[in-house]
Design brief:
Blueprint lengths: L1 H11 L21 H11 L5 E4 L9 H13 L3 E4 L9 H34 L11 E5 L8 E5 L1 H15 L4 H10 L12 H9 L6 E4 L2 E4 L8 H13 L19
Parallel strand pairs: 1-2
Antiparallel strand pairs: 3-4, 5-6
Length: about 260
């Protein structure tokens, strides 16, 4: 929708569109965006004479980066216009106005991050896991919460695999052996991939399976049903602390290591 409006505005100005530069799904806080870098490179080549944006925050949500872009445009004699904001970079007042819009964009970004973090901490304190899909559980709408948040419910077959991981580890089996046994029994991870040493360790480390939730290094009592008891989880942690799990280091290189299995 923004592109269509800008194309119509370009046509109204009697100009032609050289190229549309996009950075979908990339943070506007960074300069390391393919679309932005391509635009700056083309600007140095003199391939266009003006740049149109829906609003100034589309260029950058960091004021320092915005000033760099402004200077580059000025150096290459490129005009900049914002469809929703009116300013002229060629005048001191216009440049000041553009910088104010940039400051507002940065402030909005920082405020959004703070709100998200506060909301996540509040969610964790309420006993709900912050994050995505976790093997052993499914995330479903919480019918008891009017805000429509989600809660974890046990997936029986996956939970059986989690319990097996803890049982086998407490019996003395290593990560690799446990992974091989689970794979041999037909179990697969949440994304359908075979179990590995890393995925086994990740399960043993997660206190979520003992009914807790973690946020920013702190644990809170969860509202979800635990898959293993807190005693079982603590026994596993004690064993993890006493065992040394390390990689064998050699002084020569296998060229296909990690590529061929």
């Amino acid at each position: 929708a923004q592109e269509k409006v800008l194309r119509d505005e370009i046509a109204r100005q009697g100009k032609k569109v050289f190229k549309v530069y996009k950075d979908a799904g990339v943070s506007g806080y960074t300069m390391e965006r393919p679309g932005l870098q391509a635009m700056l490179n083309d600007a140095k080549e003199g391939l266009f004479g003006s740049v149109g944006v829906w609003m100034i925050s589309r260029l950058s949500r960091k004021l320092a980066n915005l000033l760099i872009i402004f200077d580059e445009f000025k150096r290459e004699n490129i005009q900049l216009f914002s469809f929703t904001e009116k300013f002229d970079l060629n005048t001191p007042v216009g440049k000041f106005t553009a910088q104010m819009f940039g400051s507002i964009a940065q402030m909005q970004r920082e405020a959004l991050i703070e709100n998200v973090l506060n909301g996540s901490k509040k969610k964790a304190k309420a006993g709900k896991v912050v994050g995505g899909k976790l093997f052993g559980y499914d995330s479903v709408p919480d019918t008891d919460d009017p805000k429509g948040t989600k809660k974890l419910v046990i997936v029986p077959r996956e939970a059986k695999a989690v319990r097996k991981v803890f049982d086998l580890y407490l019996q003395g089996y290593g990560f690799k052996s446990i992974a091989q046994m689970l794979n041999a029994d037909g179990y697969r991870g949440s994304k359908g991939s075979p179990f590995s040493i890393i995925s086994i360790k990740r399960i043993l480390d997660s206190k979520v399976y003992a009914g807790m939730v973690k946020y920013c290094g702190e644990y809170y009592q969860g509202i979800h049903e635990p898959i293993v008891s807190i005693e079982t989880w603590e026994k596993a942690q004690a064993m993890l602390a006493t065992k040394t799990h390390c990689k064998r280091i050699v002084d020569y290189r296998y060229l296909l290591s990690g590529l061929v299995k």
